[in-house]
């Protein structure tokens, strides 16, 4: 997910450039910390995969992105 000039982004679905709030699909690495009284989920890292100008654009590509990410995960598990 690359930012263009200034605060401008390009939608992965419709290719429209925009500067408003964006919708995105991200990957996160989490872990659970059991050291305290109550378990805490800590975000270890995250990576933005794609950004979109609207929820409709995000929804239309969601299945494709998730399929691609699961296929990549399954490939890495086979190694």
Task: Please name the defining characteristics of this protein.
single chain, alpha+beta, 79 residues, extended, two-stranded antiparallel ribbon, 4 strands
Briefly, what is this?
The protein has one helix and four strands, in the order E-E-E-E-H. It is α+β, with helices and mostly antiparallel strands.
Structural account:
The protein has 79 residues and is an alpha+beta fold. It has one domain (9-78). 30% of the residues lie in helices and 35% in strands. It is built from 1 helix and 4 strands, in the order ββββα. The protein has one helix at residues 55-78; strands at 9-10, 17-18, 23-33, 40-52. The strands form 2 sheets. A two-stranded antiparallel sheet has the order 1-2. Strands 3-4 form a two-stranded antiparallel sheet. A hairpin with a 6-residue loop joins strand 1 (9-10) and strand 2 (17-18). The longest helix is centred in the last third of the chain and has 24 residues, at 55-78. It starts with 8 loop residues before the first strand and ends with a helix.
Let me know the average pLDDT: 84
* Total domain units: 1
- Tally of contiguous helical segments: 1
Radius of gyration: 16 Å
Uncertain runs with pLDDT below 50, 5 residues or more?
Answer: none
Beta strand count: 4
Question: How do the helices and strands follow one another from N- to C-terminus?
Answer: EEEEH
Q: What can be said about the biggest beta sheet?
A: 2 strands, antiparallel
Strand proportion: 35-45%
The side-by-side strand order for the widest beta sheet comes to 1-2
First-residue to last-residue Cα separation:
27 Å
């Amino acid at each position: 997910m690359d930012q263009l000039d200034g605060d401008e982004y390009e939608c992965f679905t419709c290719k429209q450039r925009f500067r408003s709030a964006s919708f995105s699909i991200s990957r996160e690495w989490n872990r659970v910390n059991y050291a305290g009284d109550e378990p805490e989920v800590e975000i270890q890292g995250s990576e933005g995969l794609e950004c979109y100008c609207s929820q409709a654009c995000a929804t239309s590509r969601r299945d494709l992105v998730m399929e691609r990410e699961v296929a990549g995960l399954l490939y890495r598990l086979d190694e």
